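Incident log, support desk, overnight shift.

02:14 A customer reports that sequence design results differ from what the structure should imply. Their input is reproduced verbatim below. On-call engineer (initials T.W.) acknowledged and began investigating.
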């Protein structure tokens, strides 16, 4: 499988580094990092990611508006958005789909199986 390009939107630097290491070092995926949803939106047009991995817990004042903007991009370019959050288990697959997410991954996550979990959620072949 060709290396996937992941747009990772995470405001906490330490978690961003861990996620990048998991996805790049273990599976060789290409990672584009954004520390805010607004920055992630800007990167979408430049990078054309295969998936957007986002933690919606953010200090951004306009986070909900930015998330809606990401969903428009997602729909227009068929780029799935995965939620990664300590609250991911609160939502059923149906509710996530209604909210515009392709799926969710719980924090804490297993670093060794994270990319496998993403691939399974999105139906990507290994």
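02:41 Re-run completed on a clean worker. Output:
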């Amino acid at each position: 499988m060709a290396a996937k390009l992941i747009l990772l939107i995470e405001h906490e630097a330490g978690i961003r580094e861990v996620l990048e290491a998991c996805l790049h070092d273990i599976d060789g995926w290409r990672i584009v990092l954004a520390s805010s949803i607004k920055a992630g939106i800007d990167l979408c047009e430049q990078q054309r990611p295969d998936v957007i991995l986002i933690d919606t817990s953010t200090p951004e004042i306009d986070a909900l508006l930015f998330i809606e903007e990401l969903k428009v991009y997602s729909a227009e370019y068929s780029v799935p958005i995965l939620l990664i959050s300590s609250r991911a288990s609160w939502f059923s697959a149906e509710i996530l789909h209604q909210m515009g997410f392709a799926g969710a991954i719980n924090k804490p996550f297993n670093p060794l199986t994270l990319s496998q979990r993403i691939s399974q959620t999105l139906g990507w072949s290994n």
